Structure to design on (162 residues):
């Protein structure tokens, strides 16, 4: 979900795991010259989701990576199935109230959350995406687990996946 800390937690975990980190939104921006917010504002979400699916499949997978995907990534273009085929998928579990609190102090405004209050948009976004999210059984809970505990979970998942 937006505001869950995918990028910041992904960076921290990649350092603890001693593996490379890729932020899919930055990957897209570096290759296209346009960031996801601008892309959605200029061309619409559908065009962005196509570019996102293409970019996801262009990430080189020769070595272990931590990849932070956007919150909508698993919900479009069979991306979740692709992610399951390629490696370990984890979701970050936070209460909606925490997401609302984080996003209310965040800048800049996210285009998918621009219409209506966060108190309305975040629960609606969760409802629209939860079918995809709940398929992911590997769960990280930053409010209940330390970085060390989450890194240990990731190591265990990686060991099982080999």
């Amino acid at each position: 979900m937006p505001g869950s800390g995918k990028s910041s937690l992904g960076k921290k975990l990649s350092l603890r795991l001693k593996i490379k980190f890729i932020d899919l939104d930055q990957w897209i921006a570096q290759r296209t010259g346009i960031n996801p917010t601008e892309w959605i504002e200029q061309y619409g979400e559908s065009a962005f989701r196509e570019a996102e699916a293409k970019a996801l499949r262009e990430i080189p997978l020769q070595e272990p990576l931590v990849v932070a995907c956007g919150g909508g990534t698993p919900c479009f273009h069979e991306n979740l199935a692709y992610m399951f085929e390629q490696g370990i998928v984890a979701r970050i579990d936070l209460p909606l109230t925490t997401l609302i609190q984080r996003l209310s102090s965040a800048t800049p405004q996210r285009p998918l959350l621009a219409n209506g209050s966060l108190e309305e948009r975040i629960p609606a976004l969760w409802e629209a995406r939860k079918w995809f999210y709940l398929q992911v059984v590997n769960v990280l809970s930053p409010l209940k687990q330390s970085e060390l505990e989450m890194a240990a979970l990731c190591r265990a998942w990686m060991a099982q996946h080999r």
Observations:
- The mean pLDDT is 93.
